[in-house]
Specification:
The protein has about 240 residues and is α/β, with parallel strands linked by helices. It has one domain: NAD(P)-binding Rossmann-like Domain (Rossmann fold, 3-Layer(aba) Sandwich). It is built from 8 helices and 7 strands; from the N terminus they run βαββαβαβααβαααβ. Helix 3 links the parallel strand 4 and strand 5. The radius of gyration is 17 Å and the shape is globular.
Length: about 240
């Protein structure tokens, strides 16, 4: 394994925190962006807002100064504002798309500068099973997560000859604070629709992300890797 400099956006909680922890455990130099809170022990936390290009640029500059050029970037930061279409405001739609999709664009654009210079890079975009499976009350979220596939595949065509890969990891239902507060009956109902019959752990997602960003996956690009227990049946 080659030790790399890794940046995970939204690495202060949930899947992002688990991804950063996995890279730390593997011995990489790891930084996370967060608007509040901290990344896992052993990582560098920098403040950044993915809706602000200047903020992203400053965060990258700080990471580069302390850890070196970013070689692996995980675009994970995201939000939800779920509501049915007829109740969804323009702001509900535009805010989610600008954060989840626009944020990934800004992060990847800034990361690509160093990657092109080094002729090496790993870009991993964290999508969701909802992006291609759909979800009632999630038109904004689904659109933003589906758009990540278009980004990854376009990047693959633009940057593939420069030693840079771009892939999407699409988690399904994950064990989290959000799912833990659901009534047991509702959790059981969700699990019925998942062939694996259970939710994933954040660590299971993190290990897939670390693998697709690693040395062994250098000939995979433009792929969508579901980590959803069979819920979406690939895409």
């Amino acid at each position: 394994m080659t030790t790399r400099t890794v940046l995970v956006t939204g690495g202060n909680r949930g899947i992002g925190h688990a991804i950063a922890s996995e890279f730390v455990a593997q011995g990489h130099r790891v930084a996370v962006t967060a608007r509040s809170g901290e990344g896992p022990e052993g990582s560098l936390t920098v403040r950044a807002d993915v809706t602000d290009a200047a903020s992203i640029d400053a965060a990258f500059s700080e990471v580069e100064a302390q850890l070196g050029p970013v070689e692996i970037v995980i675009a994970n930061a995201g939000i939800t504002r779920d509501t049915l279409l007829m109740r969804m405001s323009e702001e509900d739609f535009s805010t989610v798309v600008d954060t989840n999709l626009g944020g990934a664009f800004r992060v990847v654009k800034r990361a690509s500068k160093g990657m092109l210079k080094a002729r090496y890079g790993r870009i991993v975009l964290i999508s969701s099973v909802i992006g291609l499976f759909g979800g009632a009350g999630q038109v904004n979220y689904a659109a933003s997560k589906a758009g990540l596939v278009g980004i990854a595949r376009s990047l693959t065509r633009e940057l593939g000859a420069r030693g840079i890969t771009a892939n999407v990891v699409a988690p399904g239902f994950i064990e989290s604070d959000m799912t833990a507060v659901l009534p047991e009956e509702q959790q059981a109902e969700y699990k019925k629709s998942i062939p694996a019959g259970r939710f994933a752990t954040p660590a299971e997602v993190a290990k897939v992300v670390a693998w697709i960003a690693g040395d062994d996956a250098g000939y995979i690009s433009g792929a969508v890797i579901p980590v959803d227990g069979g819920l979406g049946m690939g895409h």
